Amino acid sequence: MSNYMPTLKQLQYLVALKEHEHFGKAADSCYVTQSTLSAGIRELESLIGVTLVERTRRVVRFTALGDRIVEKAHRVLREAEELSAIAEASGKPLTGELRMSVIPTIAPFLLPRLLPRLRADRPELKLYLREETTQAGLESLRHGNVDCVLLALPFPTGEVDSEILFQDRLYVAFPRDDPRDPPEWIGPDMIDETKLLLLEDGHCLKDHALAACNRPELRASATMMGTSLHTLVQMVDNGLGVTMLPEMAITGGILDHTHITARPVRSERACRDIALIWRKNSPREKEFRLLAEILRAAETPPLNHGDA
């Protein structure tokens, strides 16, 4: 059995190839040439004496052992990054690089308020953002591709540390000429399941909206076709149905220049918890908790319970 120890660079190449399933794209992500990446992986295979990747002209296919080694490589790379993070965290907090995933139902509405504050208060922080769905963000966190994730709970996150930032109430949005125009609130029983438009699978807001209503028939009858909240708003504004929006989207101006009215949902579950999560026992925990405080300060005051 070989005593050869793979280099971090070789493991990085292998992980990138698994993620992109394409030598050219993997090389671009590692900022090296395709021949450099390919040679690094071949050298790794040669020195440990096993085949990790089956190469054909059109397909990159990992062997079963290759998949196992990639999983271990993720952990090794993550631990190596945390070694440098320990030293970085001992100095001035929130300086240097920080990679954060943000879900699409938060990013366009909170980040415009957050980023100017961070630039002013933490000019030495280099914040790299990835907008991706909750599950994709959790995978990025698990594999060490990001340091923290800004998302909405409840959602099964696994073993992570977290800070709840604030609650985000859910509203029903409908055309202003809709005959059902209550003065302040909308009860779940008032929502016509045949007209409810929701985001596609993969967006946790869909599950939060359905849980707020607590009506099993909505899951079967609602039309799940929206790729973004802005798409849903356009559908509602054109009379195609009603939808549910988070308060931060409304305060962020998503209904500006539309003929849409929004009312809060009368339900104990009609809200989601906005949270920042990170890997358990991360050496940057104090930084993440400081970032959570900045995120809280970026929240705007809540809406009135009347017209949005």
Automatic annotation (TrEMBL):
Signal peptide: none annotated. It comes from Sphingobium wenxiniae (strain DSM 21828 / CGMCC 1.7748 / JZ-1). This is LysR family hydrogen peroxide-inducible transcriptional activator. GO terms for molecular function: DNA binding; DNA-binding transcription factor activity. Pfam families: HTH_1 (PF00126), LysR_substrate (PF03466). Belongs to the LysR transcriptional regulatory family. Residues 6-63 form the HTH lysR-type domain. GO terms for cellular component: protein-DNA complex. Keywords: DNA-binding, Transcription, Transcription regulation. InterPro entries: LysR_HTH_N, LysR_subst-bd, WH-like_DNA-bd_sf, WH_DNA-bd_sf. Coiled coil: none annotated.
